[in-house]
Amino acid sequence: MHSRPDYLKNISPHHGEVIRDLLSQETRDKLVAKLDAMPNGETWYADIYNKAIYGPMVFRDEELDIVEIIEELLPEYRILADLYLEKTPSDQGFPFHTDFDSIGFMEHPEDMLTVWIPLTPVHEAGSGQLSIVMEEGAVRLSLIREANQLHSLVRIVDPSVPEHVPFQITQQEYDYLERSKVTPSLDAGDALLFCNAFFHKSENVHQGKRTAYILRLVPKDAKFSRTRLLGLKMLGQNLAVVNELLEQHYPDALETL
Questions:
Q1: Helix, strand, or coil here: 101?
Q2: How far apart are CA 36 and CA 79, in angstroms?
Q3: Would you say 198 and 131 are in contact if contact means Cβ atoms under 8 Å apart?
């Protein structure tokens, strides 16, 4: 794993960290049993992956101790949502992207942290590894994309906001991201931490199935945007979490929908 550039400390202090043995074999076995028993989700993720469950919320199961594990590892954060993805050779997965199409509801969304935990080993090309980018130029480019995505969410709630040209990565930029990416080797139960605002992608699976359990973390003092929450609700994105946050922080907004 490449060393983390110093400038990341002030932007996203945990981006690119690898945590070994975060989940024990016992916890993984219990987690897999619960997720295997759940049906595929009814979101656009399910059109891209063999099986995709957005927001199973299994981290709340006290038998798994996931909340306690994260509290010990990152005491300044709390878990907001989770995601389960199965990837097979027939699944294209996501090219380089940032995550605010469905989770751009924080006042400072770049403070959100993903904990990506493979439940099958991802050691080499073809095993379904996750690649992230830490180069400063790519980070600045990703923040431009973030601003574009959040602008689109505002427009959903307030159509009087002028439309903006959609963000598109040029071939030259994509080639730069490919050259700059970092692709760590992880065992089942290890974790890769990364900032949702920065570019990342899922690599191909050549045979078998790669499974990954993903946690979305936010600082315990995080503030949430009423406008963006309403935009995501109108899009039908991440409704379990969006509705909870609206009920907690903006109950009056639900009355006007």
A1: helix
A2: 21
A3: no
CA 16 to chain centre: 13
Cβ contacts of 191 within 8 Å, gap of 6 or more: 18, 19, 22, 23, 115, 116, 117
Nearest to 39 by CA among 84, 74, 73: 84
Where in 134-252 does DSSP place strands (E)? 181-182, 191-195, 200-202, 210-219
pTM for the full model?
0.90
Spatial separation of the C-alpha atoms in residues 45 and 209, rounded to whole Å: 16
Instruction: Tell me how crowded residue 6 is: count the other CB atoms within 10 A of its CB.
Output: 7
Main-chain dihedrals φ then ψ at residue 152, nearest 5 degrees: -65, -35
Closest CA to 107 of 15, 222, 206: 222
Distance set, CA 131 to CA 20, 27, 200, 233 (Å): 17, 25, 5, 30
Task: Give the residue carrying structure tokens 């199935």.
Answer: 209
CA distance 194 to 116: 8
Q: From edge to edge, which strands make up the β-sheet containing 130-133?
A: 181-182, 130-133, 200-202
pLDDT digits (tens, 9 = 90+) for 151-209: 888 898 899 999 888 888 899 999 999 999 999 999 999 999 999 889 999 999 999 99
What are 24-67's pLDDT values in tens digits?
Answer: 999 999 999 999 999 887 766 667 788 888 889 999 999 999 99
3-state secondary structure 180-191: HEECCCECCCCE
Indicate the pairing of strand 130-133 with strand 51-54: unpaired
